[in-house]
Specification:
It comes from Kistimonas scapharcae. This protein has about 140 residues and is of the alpha+beta class. The protein has three helices and six strands. It starts with a strand and ends with a strand.
């Protein structure tokens, strides 16, 4: 896997993936940027959320659960000192569907956290406290 990040101007950068996708990243105005894109640290959170969400939806679909939507709300805390690494990340999944079984959702979240989500497992091994919760909403 490869990627490239190019400086545009100020504190704005464009990241390009090996698969040809691009994203603009920028620092917030308080850090000298223009807030024209997510910060690199926000991208890390989105990556964790995306990685884990793919696992959860895939596992539920394989369990023949009728998932109609899934989103994850992510909250994180960072160290007060430089480097301001993440110290805690909490992922809260909201899964909507027809006749969803709570035990299947619980299992899908646990499998992502413990076995499949490379992003969150990597951060956990680096000392970030990562927690998960979920709710099931019937439609």
């Amino acid at each position: 896997m490869k990627a490239q990040v190019k400086w545009v101007d100020g504190f704005r950068f464009v990241g390009e993936t090996q698969s040809g996708h691009s994203v603009v990243m920028d620092a917030s105005q308080q850090h000298g940027g223009n807030n024209l894109g997510p910060s690199p640290m926000e991208m890390i959170l989105q990556g964790v959320g995306g990685c884990s969400s793919i696992d959860v939806v895939s596992t539920l679909q394989k369990s023949r659960q009728d998932v109609l939507s899934c989103h994850v709300d992510i909250e994180a805390e960072r160290a007060d000192t430089v480097p301001a690494v993440f110290t805690k990340i909490h992922l809260h999944f909201v899964v909507k569907g027809r006749d969803l079984k709570e035990n299947h959702v619980s299992r899908a979240v646990a499998l992502s956290a413990e076995k499949y989500c490379s992003a969150s497992i990597m951060l956990g091994k680096a000392g970030v406290e990562i927690t998960h919760s979920f709710e099931v909403q019937a439609i």
